[in-house]
Amino acid sequence: MPHIVERLRDGVAIEPEAAPLKVAVLLPCYNEEAAIAEVVAGFRAVLPGADIYVYDNNSRDRTVERAVEAGAIVRRERLQGKGNVVRRMLADVEADIYLMADGDLTYDPLAAPLLVDRLVSGQFDMVVATREGEGMLARRGHAAGNRLFNRMIDLLFGVGFTDILSGYRVMSRRFAKSFPSASRGFEIETELSVHALDLRLAVDEMPVRYGKRPENSSSKLSTYRDGFRILWMITMMYRALKPFKFYGAIAGVLAFVGVALGLPVVVEFIETGLVPRLPTAVLAASIVQLSVLSFVCGLIVEAVADGRREAKRLRYLELKSA
């Protein structure tokens, strides 16, 4: 147990000064030679005491050389995909506060100290930078998809974020080290947001300027391919975290179909004592049986999900808060 009193001054107990919090800036990169040096310099200027990590994801250009020249700590992740890079960063890097951004110069480094201060002063586990400005206006397809996914998250997991796909966010050590990442690609931001909502962690948002990429830099995000992956991730997380509602909805649909098919057969049997449409009767009974199985499955998996949620919560509580 740490000493509460370090020394005496004129007979008065003096508490020891708290050690400064260690901040790590995490920059996942793939073919970002056009911007990465300026990004590193920007974060170095506003967070001079922070460790700046550039994790290269098999870049085919001079991203690594530019990052080294800018003074960043450069490491590599061979598994392709942003989710794989973020999982490796959060596992390997030791810090009190983790600030994650992109290496494409779209996120404003000047907002970094404000994000860190908001996290510390508000005792939050994560603060997300909501994007505003010309960068969002220039990518209307991505902005529309972002609004759609935000609405889905609100309906399925509860209200908490207005920009779940933002790659600019700051996290506490507790959050970073207890986050059970499973994503491989750009769905990682969705997973981070849903994890916070599921455990009802303290989160906040702060608007920041979102700029355009440099002209000789291109986006790695595919509107349709990655949009489908994000949609699939939301569906799978809903199945894992809200299994009773997921399987209960399936059970309700099956029950409706089974009753719709079987009711005329039952009515006819009551009136005539005959079952002339035997295949329909068998099909209806089978569908209703599947409905019951789905309902029971939902009950069982819900208990498993509660146990996993409790384990994640205990893991979160085991870690020291900054």
TrEMBL record:
The lineage of its organism: Bacteria, Pseudomonadati, Pseudomonadota, Alphaproteobacteria, Hyphomicrobiales. It comes from the Bacteria. Coiled coil: none annotated. Pfam families: Glycos_transf_2 (PF00535). Keywords: Membrane, Transmembrane, Transmembrane helix. It comes from Chelatococcus sambhunathii. The chain crosses the membrane at residues 246-270, 282-305. The keyword Membrane applies. Residues 25-176 form the Glycosyltransferase 2-like domain. CDD domains: DPM_DPG-synthase_like. This is Glycosyltransferase.
